[in-house]
Write a structure and sequence with these properties.
The structure holds two protein chains of two kinds. By secondary structure, chain A is an all-beta fold. Chain A has strands at residues 4-7, 10-13, 19-25, 32-38, 44-51, 57-58, 67-73, 76-81, 90-97, 106-108, 112-116. Classes of the chains: A mainly beta, B mainly beta. The A-B interface holds A 4, 6, 32, 34, 41-46, 49, 57, 91, 93, 95, 97, 101-103, 105-111, 113 and B 6, 30-31, 35, 40-45, 48, 88, 92, 94-96, 98-106, 108.
Chain lengths: 117, 113
């Protein structure tokens, strides 16, 4: 089956540090990838939609300069949390949609738990 | 803005009991997906329903899509401790510019032995 690899799975760093999270589709091409944020005991909240070769589309209230997204290839999207602060601590999850249209299935990574001290 | 109301948010039952989780919206969706998520992991797709009135079965799990494609339900028969987890419904509109999923708030199920 389709596999999405997310790395790292867990990161702890000091306030002010920038953190990069990678999302890779291992055995399929994904023109579109999605980045979600999930707080404890809550559902997934879409942060942004990442399209290969173009600028990401951010949801209302998500700072694009804070959460930098790069989708340089059909198998890799990265999310960089710049100058992270404790309030950025959360569980970040990516999903990758199989290239071929919006009705193609999305496959999720295992998430990255980010803890900012 | 499309919203999906999922209920109940929390459910604690004994092994062997049946349960139903509901997902409702005032909007029509092209498809609706159900996921299960374990702590510290990403959601795993259980099923996708596309046709109004569609019923799909996955062992003891029965999924139904409403005739108008605005609501869905997940029924678990004879729940087992291994069913414990967070169940999420998510709707999608194929015609949207991005085709992104809209998630419900989730149902945290706990099945006690």
């Amino acid at each position: 089956g389709a596999v999405v690899s997310q790395h790292p799975s867990w990161v702890i760093c000091k306030s002010g540090t920038s953190v990069k999270i990678e999302c890779r589709s291992l055995d399929f091409q994904a023109t579109t990838m999605f980045w979600y944020r999930q707080f404890p005991k809550q559902s997934l909240m879409l942060m942004a939609t990442s399209n290969e070769g173009s600028k990401a589309t951010y949801e209302q209230g998500v700072e694009k300069d804070k959460f930098l997204i790069n989708h340089a290839s059909l198998t890799l999207s990265t999310l960089t949390v710049t100058s992270a602060h404790p309030e950025d601590s959360s569980f970040y999850i990516c999903s990758a949609r199989v290239t071929g249209g919006s009705n193609q299935p999305q496959h999720f990574g295992d998430g990255t738990r980010l803890s900012i001290l | 803005t499309q919203l999906l109301e999922q209920s109940p948010q929390f459910l604690s039952i004994q092994e062997g009991e049946n349960l139903t989780v509901y997902c409702n919206s005032s909007s029509v969706f092209s498809s609706l997906q159900w996921y299960r998520q374990e702590p510290g992991e990403g959601p795993v797709l259980l099923v996708t329903v596309v046709t109004g009135g569609e019923v799909k079965k996955l062992k003891r799990l029965t999924f139904q899509f409403g005739d108008a494609r605005k609501d869905s339900s997940l029924h678990i028969t004879a729940a087992q401790p291994g069913d414990t987890g967070l169940y999420l419904c998510a709707g999608m509109n194929y015609g949207g510019s991005q085709g992104n999923l809209i998630f419900g708030k989730g149902t945290k199920l706990s099945v006690k032995p």
